[in-house]
Amino acid sequence: MTGPEPESAPGRYPFPPPPTYAGPTRERWIWTAVVVGIGALIFGVLLVSWIGGAPQGPQQVGVADVLSSGTAPSTRFDSHEIQIAGWYAAATTGCSGDDGGADPSVSWLQRTCPVRVLLPQEPSGPVTAAQLLRDGLRLAAPNGEPFPPPAPTGSGTAGLEQLVFTGHFDDAAAAKCVPDREDQCRNTFVVSGYAGLIR
Q: Is residue 117 within 8 Å of residue 89, measured between CB atoms?
């Protein structure tokens, strides 16, 4: 006669209870904290950039927008630096008028010759200084330097491409212009530099 088999015999019931879960280890807690911290950092950076906005350069507009807005550029943009894109054209000969008077601090702004303008479209042929002033945005610069090299009247940016001019309206020197040219002076785009539209 044989006695009962031990309870721990393999293949027999009852099975031993499964081991209990002791909980996450110290290393697991550390790695979880690292992942959560990285996620929080990325979220914080995105939140700050969304609230503060990305740094922006000067506002850029097309010359057609400036000419057709119905608001004087000096009123619309004040003296803030902006960028205007268009076709550059100049008439250094064939224009009539004075050299801006004896006061060099304002002569560069109120002179009527040479004529430098920014046009919404490339001229299709030779145009007069009067046509340039009628169809374009008048440009000036204190030293007359930040402009493309002279080209035949009507060639528009030497026939190459549109340019982006950086500058401002409502220059402080406009207050010294003769009364009948003060509005013209305030609405002349004072250029500090230019670059190609496609870079």
A: yes
